[in-house]
Amino acid sequence: MAGKGRGVGAFTFNIEALGIGRGSMPDSRVGPMPLFPNIDFKPVPLKAGEEEDYMLALKQEMRGTMQQLPHNIKCHANKAEVERYTERYLKQRQLDDANWTPDWSLLPKELMPQKKKVVKPVKKKKAVKISRKETEAMLTKLDELEKKDDGNPEKSDDETEKKKVNEGEEEEEIEAEEYDEEDVEEENDYIDSYFDNGEDFGGAGSDENVDGEGTY
Amino acid sequence: MTAQEVRLCGLLLQEHFGEMVEKVGTHLLKSGAQNLRMILHETGISLDLLKKSLCVLVQHGACVFSSGRKGPGSPTEYRTSCDRILRILRYPRYIYTAKTLYGDTGELIIEELLQRGHMTMSSTVKTVADRLTQNMEDGRSMDYNDVSNSFSNLVETHFLQRCPPPPRAGPKESVTPAPHPVPGTPTPPISTALPTAESFPDCYKVPHVTLTGRGKRPLSSEDVDDQRNAKKAKMDSETHGDEGICWQVNFERFHLHFRDQAIISAVANKLDQTSSEIVRTMLRMSEVTTSPSATCTKPLSANEIFRSLPTNYNITRPILDQYLTLLVDDPMEFVGKAGESGGGMYVVNMHRALANLARATLESVVQERFGSRSARIFRLLLRKRHLEQKQVEDFAMIPAKEAKDMLYSLLSQNLVQLQEVPKTPDYAPSRTFYLYTVNQLPTARMLLQNCYKTVANLIERRLYESKESKRLLEKSQRIEAILASLQASGAEPEQLTEVEEMITAPEKQQLDALRLHINKLDSAENQVDETIFLIESYVNSTKTTS
């Protein structure tokens, strides 16, 4: 702070060595540079001649053809749903070129499109078969267990969850049956005596207050 | 890869190959060599599209693949480089050069190869013959032999080369078991550098191709001839004896040709036509004997030059000697004297010529942007290397205040640098010399980046202009299509005029203005590319010399 008055505008070196005086400083910049600054010297016009015209035509043609080639991979999302009017007049040849197979000897093998093998349905059937047998066995086991010790409902819940992993129609039926059984048994975690439904409170249960003090 | 190069490559890829390839290409440019899984993970494109894009990039030579860094068992890695993609800017120049050297046939061959990346000789010949036949009068067609001859000529002069075979990536998974290596033969070393096309001895050998026939005209009526075409297609699928041998354009050879042209035209501009003819002769004689990165051509004696001059230039021997002396004494140093035997041994100094041409380009840039007096200061600094502020004012004969202004504007644009030379070890400002200097090579590099930025801006502006008037352009295209179909089916002129009037007059004006703008922008891209070529050649020539 002590040097604020004297330090402002002073340079750390002798500016006369660079040949500039204090008064010849350029204006300080206010804000960022304009996007299109005014230039003092306009650019030289382009060369215009037969060669340049020919190369211009070549360039535009090349751009056009390369956009039509199958090399130009278009995003599939861009294809319009409705067939546009111009497409009727497009040359058939352009549409035929869409399939292009490169020379695979010059490309690495991993770039070849892989054919998807259809294996899934066979596996599914096997899985269903196995699960069917398993679930039947488990069901019979469960019935026996339930009859034995009045069901630990948690165990049956776990087992039903495990069976949910195996898909199949019969499993749903089996689960439905199990749910029905659970409803019938009415086994739950809550102790019956905990629930107080207010019947014993100042109502029909007791005959002490008959004066008519209102029950709230 | 600088940011400007990557941006320009992205725009070029997008224009020519679509957005998918552009995404993949820019990602590879920014992140170096990567294998398929990493690219898939980082770009988030579906595997199918990614594979297709990589195929397109490899087909066009923009991307090379090799076995991974960890050894032959690791997945293949892909890498791109800016250089190959930036060549796309120069395609029209290559095609035009082929036209001037080999006529329409050569032009179409080069055009087809540039569009498709690489193709076999037979498919190229067939396509080119068909295209030439299309443009010929009815009843005439192009023979395959003519096209094959042009193709062979292009290969002989090294404008076309074979594609290098792919590097062996990983163990072979073929059905037949790999042959057991014979003990005693040395295993080839796994080189980290990718083999270039030149490193194979057969790269310029034309295969023996059995190709007879003439070009086919596309048939106008579609219905009746579809069946005939189907039959023909089956017959045409015979092999021609050159399967698997793909050809690509040899860009380096074209660049040598452009360089020679630049030197010859520079001599013609500075001196006169006869001197340029002499230099052209010298360059033609040393085409085969000079390697591409040589500093200067092999020495040629004046006797040889005299004998090889074109016959319509009948200058006498003493006059030739005088011209050669003039060329040697010229400050541009295109031609140098290497000895006295054989009437004087003369060489063309390639690298020095390129350096001088680049210097001239830099000076012209400064002149056009800052004025001729700033250009005078710039030339002075180039010549005198280091000058103090006072010395600059004196030598350039410019008043002090203006000289200061110009120097500072050049300094702010980084065309001129300050060099501190201390008198005392503590770099005290009052006891230090501040010298202005120009370093040609870094300035040339900076200018090259400016050129890339310029071209990228031009392309973006062109895309913007087309997008603004997209609706109008589509309408005009539709109307042209309608007109064409009407004319083909034979309509009355009143109908044609009616259709033409669907575009109103102000719309026509707008379309014309748009066309003019787009043509100007395109032409500007071509011409900036000429500067790019010059400066790139200069920068590359300094890399090879120590």
UniProtKB/TrEMBL annotation, chain A:
Residues 138-167 have a biased composition (Basic and acidic residues). Residues 168-190 have a biased composition (Acidic residues). It comes from the Eukaryota. The keyword Nucleus applies. It is found in: Nucleus. Signal peptide: none annotated. Residues 138-216 are annotated as: Disordered. InterPro entries: RNA_pol_III_Rpc31. Coiled coil: none annotated. The keyword DNA repair does not apply. This is DNA-directed RNA polymerase III subunit. It comes from Pagothenia borchgrevinki.
From TrEMBL, chain B:
The keyword Cytoplasm does not apply. Residues 163-184, 214-239 are annotated as: Disordered. Component of the RNA polymerase III (Pol III) complex consisting of 17 subunits. GO terms for cellular component: RNA polymerase III complex. Residues 362-438 form the DNA-directed RNA polymerase III subunit RPC3 winged-helix domain. Pfam families: HTH_9, RNA_pol_Rpc82, RPC3_helical, WHD_POLR3C. GO terms for molecular function: single-stranded DNA binding. It comes from Pagothenia borchgrevinki. It is found in: Nucleus. Its main location: nucleus. Residues 8-66 form the RNA polymerase III subunit RPC82-related helix-turn-helix domain. PANTHER family: DNA-DIRECTED RNA POLYMERASE III SUBUNIT RPC3 (PTHR12949:SF0), RNA POLYMERASE III DNA DIRECTED -RELATED (PTHR12949). Belongs to the eukaryotic RPC3/POLR3C RNA polymerase subunit family. DNA-dependent RNA polymerase catalyzes the transcription of DNA into RNA using the four ribonucleoside triphosphates as substrates. Specific core component of RNA polymerase III which synthesizes small RNAs, such as 5S rRNA and tRNAs. This is DNA-directed RNA polymerase III subunit RPC3. Keywords: DNA-directed RNA polymerase, Nucleus, Transcription. Residues 149-357 form the RNA polymerase III Rpc82 C -terminal domain. Residues 226-239 have a biased composition (Basic and acidic residues).
